[in-house]
Amino acid sequence: MPEIVLRKILVQIEEIFHEGGPAPATPLRRGAICAVISNPFAGAYTEDIAGFMDDLKPLGRDMATRLVAALGGDPARIEGFGKGAIVGEAGELEHGALWHVPGGYAMRELLNGAKAIVPSAKKVGAPGTRLDVPITHINASYVRSHFDSLEIGVPDAPRARELLLALVMTTGPRIHARVGGLQTTDISKHDGLR
Amino acid sequence: MPAELRKLVTIVEETHREGECAVTPPTRRAAAVAVIRNPHAGRFQEDLADLIEIGKTLGALLAERAVAALGIDPHSVESYGKAAAVGADGELEHAAAILHPKFGAPFRKVLGKGAALIPSSKKRGGLGVPLDIPLGHKDAAFVRSHFDGMEVRIADAPRAHEILVAVAIATSGRPHPRIGGLTTAQVIGEDGLR
């Protein structure tokens, strides 16, 4: 299958101290890593694309490792995650779906076998398109305090024949989370949901 | 942290390919952005001394964050720039108060030198407004390979009563510079121009 042709990496880290309410002792960190690569399937319909998921695995692992490092280096501190893809206009939405397996499993492996499904968003878009990547708790999707999202994007990507692949992680709940629901202390079923 | 600070964001961008041609080593640049409360939003304040002092603090803080995000020796920074965006209820002069009187000296101190004027831009805008931070060689403004700019934006800032303040730094000029002009090898670095 095609090799990975990497054009650009962008790492974005937010440190949130408050949002008008009482500042917690530890600021919340939210981070994203975006990789811009060539889309080997741009411009024509290709039936058999699934093998590219294996080709993307090393990139996924590298991106997850770099994102954890940028968030302080300790995988145990990561509490939320998400992933996303933006497909350049000569590509197909299905090409973005190739990121589900390599992106998701890269984070799961690094985060000590995180149990929850990795929430995701994808779309076809022009350079500079923004994507709201959903975020949920890494072990229990129903933890309400960790429902979040992070807007990501790269100003000059994706070009028509490119894919923008993104991973997102957070170090805790929303900064002033207070709408009830399942709490991290309630996680008991260990089924990835509750 | 000063109470006015709501959020700090760092963005690191690595370019591995440009013009269908590998960039070796990849060019790297970083931006650090603070979201602060504008103490003078919504009214005319003649004396902006407090914003000038905030600029002094942020000049050091943002420079340190950007250098740390790149994980480099601060002396290896070759170009720099700064920018600010005031929220809807602020005044352009508020951005000027932060950026111009006292911001530069602590910024340069972090980098060890900086003979050149720090190129800057400012604007007023709403949440998610893009900032195009100009970049120029830090010791010799005429170095043509280092004329550049970095676009950054924060999805939820600036609110009407906030100000975005940003720096950008880079360890090189553009990828594949080839339009002549003063080169880094010709830099004297004393007058800030050549």
Structural commentary:
The complex is a heterodimer of chains A (194) and B (194). Chain A is 18% helix and 29% strand. Chain A is built from 3 helices and 7 strands. Chain A has helices at 52-70, 93-97, 100-110; strands at residues 6-16, 28-38, 80-87, 120-124, 131-137, 148-152, 162-170. In chain A, helix 1 (52-70) packs across helix 3. The longest helix of chain A is centred in the N-terminal third of the chain and has 19 residues, at 52-70. In chain B, helix 1 (49-70) packs parallel to helix 3. Chain B is globular. In chain B, strands 1, 2, 3, 4, 5, 6 and 7 form a 7-stranded mixed beta sheet that branches. The mean pLDDT of chain B is 95. Chain B is α+β, with helices and mostly antiparallel strands and 194 residues long. The interface between A and B is medium-sized, with 22 and 22 residues.
- The first-to-last residue Cα distance of chain B is 38 Å
Helical/strand content category of chain B: alpha+beta
**Topology of chain B as a string of helices (H) and strands (E):** EEHEHHEEEE
Largest sheet features of chain A: 7 strands, mixed
**Most extensive chain interface and residues per partner:** A-B, 22 and 22 residues
Order of helices and strands of chain A: EEHEHHEEEE
Radius of gyration of chain A: 17 Å
Set down the secondary structure blueprint.
The complex is a heterodimer of chains A (194) and B (194).
Chain A: E1 6-16, E2 28-38, H1 52-70, E3 80-87, H2 93-97, H3 100-110, E4 120-124, E5 131-137, E6 148-152, E7 162-170
Parallel strand pairs in A: 3-4
Antiparallel strand pairs in A: 1-2, 2-7, 3-5, 3-7, 5-6
Helix pairs in contact in A: 1-3
Chain B: E1 5-18, E2 21-37, H1 49-70, E3 79-86, H2 92-99, H3 104-111, E4 120-124, E5 131-137, E6 148-152, E7 162-170
Parallel strand pairs in B: 3-4
Antiparallel strand pairs in B: 1-2, 2-7, 3-5, 3-7, 5-6
Helix pairs in contact in B: 1-2, 1-3
